[in-house]
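CHAIN AND CONFORMATION:
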Amino acid sequence: MHLYYWDPGELEKKLNDEFIGGQFQMKTIDWVFRGKVKECMALASRRIKVSFSWLCERHFFFDNSWTPRPKWSLLPAPPSLHYLDVEYRYFYVQDDEDRVKVKGRLGEICHFFKPGDHTNLVKLGDEFVPYCQLYQQQLRRVVIALLSPKRQ
């Protein structure tokens, strides 16, 4: 069971102390967004503004075997900063996952991840992939290279 909190000042302090440079993810009924947290600011009772260095949205595509796969696409930066104004019901700290979960007023689920979290997105060429997937790909290449017959 979690302890639920409401105070935006407390949320702002926690996020600015521990989560700047980490990532924010928002899941709605139709979309998933994820971005690198630049700044968090309490606006009013149960509202917080989250500014981003970059922001992506998740899409799905079908691979060669017609299996749906996620793909993250960078959203173009507007003339002003990327930011979301999140109105929330409550938030709590998920100590086992080392993140903060925020329940939005419209039912959206938001998570704040610390820098270095294994689920954070990293840029790989022209696309964004989860950090853990980046190293899985590198590990596969190493294993294939080791198992390949050596040429003389």
Q: What stands out?
A: Residues 98 and 127 are 26 Å apart (CA to CA). The beta strands are 23-27, 32-44, 47-62, 68-74, 82-94, 99-104, 109-113, 121-124, 127-130. The chain has a mean pLDDT of 87.
